[in-house]
Amino acid sequence: MLLLRKLAALIANAKFRIKLIVSYFLLVSVIILILGFTYYRISASNMLMNVRSSLGNVVLNNNQLLDEKLEAIRGKSDVLPVDSELYQIMIGLKMSDNESLLKADRRLTELLFQYFGGNDDIYASFIVTRDYTFGNGARMYVPSAGFFNSELHLLAERSQGDLAWIPTYDFARTFKDQHMEPISFEYSQLVSAVKELNLTYIDEEGIFHSLPPGMERPVLMINFTTDDFGKLFKDYASKNEYRNLSYGIVSAKGDMIIHSERELEASRKAPLWLEEAFKQGEGSFEKVIDGKEMLISFDRMESTGWMSYVEIPVEDALYGLKSLQSVSFLFLAVMLLVSALLAYLMSIFITKPIIRIKKAMKMVERGNFDIRIPEKGRDELGQLTRMFNHMNGRIQALIEENYASRLREKEAELMALNLQLNPHFLYNTLTTMYWIAVENGQQEISTIMRNLAEMLQTSTRNKNETWPLRTDLDWLEKYIYIMASRFGNQFKVSFEVDDSLQDMMVPKLFLQPFVENAIIHGFAEMEEGGLIVIKGWYEDDQVLFSVEDNGAGIEKDVMDRMKSGEVGSTGMPNVEKRIKLLYGNSQGIDVYSLAGKGTKVVIRMGTWTGGQRR
């Protein structure tokens, strides 16, 4: 509240031209800022919409490409169970005959290659039975017993002949092989698809054959590298200017299939927004993640049911607005300069007549009532000028008619009073009184008269604001003598002033108010034993003076009011104002006092080097 009051006072006391310039400047600035902010918000909204559309297209295209590839693989896997050769091989297997198993393995490997070998995205494919795994074991090893005891086999059974997709998984843990857990496998980052093969066969005679009821169904296992899943995302990330773009594919359970940051891919930590994204299926939204606002576009794959997404910080999405901001700031600066120039020119046009009236009023203040301002224009300022001229003429007439004689009488009275109070007249009178006292043997009165005359002569001869310290101390000693005579030697005064300070220029009579306060107030309740110690020294290049008494002391609130001039004598605030005016605001007076313990006044008066005050 105090700050607002000071600001209001500052505005109220400012010049009219300043008010006019500032008002016009603020008005133009507010308009420009509002327009700039609105334009920026609209541009940001449009740019964010374009980025959202671009990211959505990338996610949609990536999913369409993956769906086409995976649906093609699904189609081939649907044809495989009715392959006659596969049926014959599986029916003719003799698990106890190693030679039979090796021949079957070679043939089934060739058969799998015919179906899936032309696809570079397929890492390895197998037909897994409980006793043997058929396929290309050179790239990947799949233990039969571990497979049939894993969730992969359970998922194949639940799918009832449909191709089931499995996110990346820990190979050794899934197949429950503790010996392989410390080993890092390339195919621990593979995506797998499993399908239970309900093999059937129609012979040349049209007879339909299927696997015997007691025979366990083999399982087709296809393994894919994850590189191709994010290829389109990777290409998009490398071709745009977004510095913090990230992408990924995640399952409905939160398993991370791929991620642009490998450490996040390995952690398989589901995004917090995943559940909401699966409810929508596709689209985009903005979320705050780790304190940063992110734009996320997502789409669900039809083939696997997994969610593909791309996310970038909104700040990066609006990176293109940096140049717009620079141009806007430049435009704002130019417009502000132009508005300041226009405000200045306008202020001159408006305030020029006011300045003429102000100058004329100053001349009237000095007594020149003949001044007249040229009357221009018929607006309010022109009317004000005419009214001023009319008023000035009326004042001149009234002065000449009514007050001229009275002013001359007052002037005569003041001159007489000045003659009566002429310092030389007073000095001569005191000197005369001094000699009369001497002739009549009044030694004490004559000494007081002599001191008072010398004090008056010293004060009147020196018209400057400052004089040497020795002069001030000499005057003070005469003043103390008179006061001691008046109070019946109720107190004593001692001086402890460094001799090197005697020629220092100090404010006239700067110690007298504090000595007077000590005598009048400090010793008011004392009949004897009063002591005043006046010191002057320099400490750390700082010139210090002190006046210390052993009187009654003063309360803190009274001391504060005395220093501010609210109580009694105005001597203390007057001295402090003179010191600050002469030596700077860092100098001044400090008062230390306790009730019944006396008072000490410390005066700081500038720095001291080589006998000179700075």
TrEMBL record:
Entry-linked SUPFAM superfamilies: ATPase domain of HSP90 chaperone/DNA topoisomerase II/histidine kinase, HAMP domain-like
SMART domains in the record: HAMP
Gene Ontology MF terms in the entry: protein histidine kinase activity
Annotated source species: Paenibacillus harenae
EC code(s) of this entry: 2.7.13.3
Chain ranges of the HAMP domain: 348-400
Name the record gives this protein: Two-component system sensor histidine kinase YesM
Compartments where found: Cell membrane
Record keywords: Cell membrane, Kinase, Membrane, Phosphoprotein, Transferase, Transmembrane, Transmembrane helix
Transmembrane segments: 21-40, 329-351
Enzymatic class: transferase
Membrane-related topology note: Multi-pass membrane protein
CDD domains named among the record's database cross-references: HAMP
InterPro entries in alphabetical order: Bact_2-comp_sensor_kinase (IPR050640), HAMP_dom (IPR003660), HATPase_C_sf (IPR036890), HATPase_dom (IPR003594), Sig_transdc_His_kin_internal (IPR010559)
